[in-house]
Amino acid sequence: MFKGLGQMGDMAKMMKAAQEMQQKMAALQEEMHNLMVTGESGAGLVKATCTAKGELKGLDIDPSIFNSDDKEVVEDLILAAIKDAQSKATERAQEEMSKLTEGMGLPKDMKLPF
């Protein structure tokens, strides 16, 4: 007599789970702006700090690299540090997303949009 209610109950659970996931995704998106990672190059002579979203927030450059006349080396070190920071930001974002999906019982390697 009430066979259809079982399916509606399952649908309600799925909708609730989807809403929870959406809320957690929104919170994670916000958190990504506050999580900082640091990339470096030249054995730490140049350090770049960015958010887990990849937004560059700071550069720390050892003054010793300015003693050289080779401007290109300095530019390459700065670019390398920024790229390293952005790569670490991507890794960190993926780690955080994996934690979220695993916590919701979803496959660890599931890719969700940011």
UniProtKB/TrEMBL annotation:
Residues 90-99 have a biased composition (Basic and acidic residues). Residues 90-114 are annotated as: Disordered. InterPro entries: YbaB-like_sf, YbaB/EbfC. The keyword Transmembrane helix does not apply. Keywords: Coiled coil, Cytoplasm, DNA-binding. It is found in: Cytoplasm, Nucleoid. Signal peptide: none annotated. GO terms for cellular component: bacterial nucleoid; cytosol. GO terms for molecular function: DNA binding. The keyword Cytoplasm applies. Residues 11-38 form a coiled coil. Its main location: cytoplasm. Binds to DNA and alters its conformation. May be involved in regulation of gene expression, nucleoid organization and DNA protection. Belongs to the YbaB/EbfC family. Homodimer. NCBIfam families: DNA_YbaB_EbfC. PANTHER family: NUCLEOID-ASSOCIATED PROTEIN YBAB. This is Nucleoid-associated protein SAMN05444414_11255. It comes from Roseovarius marisflavi.
